[in-house]
Amino acid sequence: MPAPTRPRPAPAADLLPKIIMGVDPGTQIMGYALIEVRGQRVDVLCYDVINMKALGSNHAVKLKRIFDRMLELIDEYLPDELAIEAPFFGVNVQSMLKLGRAQGVAIAAALSRQIPYVEYAPTKVKQSVTGSGNSTKEQVAHMLRQTLKLPPIAEASTFLDATDALAVALCHHYMKGNNVTASGGKSWGKFLAENPERLGASTGAVKKKAPTKS
After folding, report:
1. How are beta strands 18-24 and 81-85 bridged, if at all?
2. 80 is catalytic
3. What is the SS3 assignment for the chain?
4. pLDDT per residue as tens digits for the range 49-86
5. In this structure, are residues 85 and 122 in contact, taking their beta carbons and an 8 Å threshold?
6. Is 164 a catalytic residue?
7. Cα 35 from chain centroid (whole Å)
8. Residue 73 main-chain phi, psi, to 5 deg
9. What is the pLDDT of residues 122-135, one digit of tens each?
10. Catalytically annotated residue among 81, 85, 138, 164
């Protein structure tokens, strides 16, 4: 008669995989990213952009494109949570209204799949990734490359929206109490101590795999 076996304990909650979707809203180009978090490890699943420049000036068509693409990504990657950047308050009221609608449509797509969302101010995202709320897009992309061990890419001017979305997802991970380096990457403080001249360096955006057509 075989010896009785004990049931295996359930894995700790912080070791269970969680997929976070990050979004950087835009009316011309919207960045998105998906990361998988397991304990202290962060793996980048994908990051890319929804390019709507070819859709003309019809804002309704762009909003539908955002909604449809968000649903495609949600159904493909099954994220547990959405982290989205809050609109930046500028002087152009019409631009602010359009950006707010784009953000709302992205949120609505997540809510239609029962996915909770959290909104983060742009300065909060930058500070969580680089240590400074006044960092440029290039500095954010550079620090993400260092932290997540990602290779550089050529199309920096367009792909910076994708790295911004990746920063939003990582910010959300940090705000959950897991503000540690990902997959053995260097912390911001250690990186600056070793490379003080690199803080102001501008680098290209990076990607984990070839971008998908959007």
Report:
1. parallel
2. no
3. CCCCCCCCCCCCHHHCCEEEEEEECCCCEEEEEEEEEECCEEEEEEEEEEECHHHCCCHHHHHHHHHHHHHHHHHHHCCCEEEEECCCCCCCHHHHHHHHHHHHHHHHHHHHCCCCEEEECHHHHHHHHHCCCCCCHHHHHHHHHHHHCCCECCCHHHHHHHHHHHHHHHHHHHHCCCCCCCCCCCCHHHHHHHCHHHCCCCCCCECCCCCCCC
4. 999 999 998 999 999 999 999 999 999 999 999 999 99
5. yes
6. no
7. 8
8. -65, -40
9. 999 999 999 998 89
10. 85
Q: Which position among 48, 81, 138, 161 bears the catalytic label?
A: 161
| C-alpha closest to that of 204 among 173, 159, 174, 167 | 159
Active-site residue, from 24, 81, 138, 164: 24
Q: Indicate if 161 belongs to the active site.
A: yes
